[in-house]
Specification:
This protein has 237 residues and is of the alpha/beta class. It has helices spanning 20-33, 47-60, 72-76, 96-102, 105-110, 125-142, 170-180, 185-191, 223-227, and strands at 2-7, 11-12, 17-18, 40-44, 65-67, 80-82, 89-91, 145-148, 153-156, 163-168, 199-203, 211-212, 215-221. The protein has a single domain, classed as Rossmann fold, CATH 3.40.50.
Length: 237
């Protein structure tokens, strides 16, 4: 199986939608993806994700399946922290104090239990990340691949050559992909990112025993924008 994770285009967060630039990005994206031979397309229930997927779904004739658990709203209310100056909230991977800690040896040594660190303990992060992991594992098993978190491998319960796309978000996606790839959230969210309409492709190739380790083939590929001369919108912190 080839699994495509695609971030939405340039957004307006309130009200939830794409900018005109985001719509141009989505159209360019569809021209590349329509040749991918998708078997299934899943989309977050947010409007910006649905608008990003719409041109691809129209060109391929595939009816998208909405995934509410992929809506970034749930990650935003649970994987954020108050800014130090009290002016609002930021993602954990952007807030300066948590970013600094995420890169330390003491957090790396905690691995998947990073939320046990005194700075993060008691803030509900264990429950938040477990929700994403639980939903992600159930979703991947529905596609034919059962996750064994202890070994970091997947058992191919229904091996296939499908090409599956999920149109969703950055904040949710960093937690989702950290689970899928068995890379602790602090390490993944601080060292990897995804641009608007960036395409990440992950291969699930089972061995003779029916086990596989997912491997990234491309990460946040935005060549469709370059081909059309469309500027990329990389995040500015």
């Amino acid at each position: 199986m080839l699994f495509y994770y695609i971030r939405h285009g340039d957004p307006i967060y309130s009200p939830d939608s794409l900018t005109e630039h985001g719509k141009v990005q989505a159209e360019a994206l569809s021209e590349m993806l329509c040749n991918s031979g998708f078997d299934k397309i899943f989309v977050s229930t947010s409007k910006r994700a649905r608008q990003t997927a719409e041109p691809t779904c129209q060109k391929t004739g595939i009816e998208p399946v909405l995934l509410d658990f992929a809506n970034e709203h749930y990650a935003w209310i649970s994987l954020v922290m108050d800014k130090e100056d009290g002016t609002g909230e930021e993602w954990l991977f952007q807030e300066k104090r948590s970013m600094a800690l995420f890169c330390t040896r003491e957090i790396r040594d905690l691995g998947d239990r990073w939320f046990d660190h005194p700075f993060f303990a008691g803030r509900g992060y264990e429950e938040a990340i477990e929700r994403v992991y639980r939903e992600a594992d159930a979703f991947m098993e529905s596609l034919g691949y059962a996750h064994d978190r202890y070994t970091g491998k997947y058992r191919a319960v229904a091996p296939n050559d499908d090409r599956v796309a999920l149109f969703a978000h950055q904040g949710f996606g960093l937690a989702f992909l950290s689970c899928l790839l068995d890379i602790p959230y602090p390490a993944f969210s601080t060292h990897f990112d995804m641009c608007h309409t960036g395409v990440t492709v992950i291969e699930f190739a089972a061995d003779k025993k029916g086990m596989c380790i997912p491997k990234i083939l491309t990460l946040s590929n935005d060549s469709h924008l370059y081909c059309k001369g469309i500027p990329s919108n990389y995040p500015k912190f």
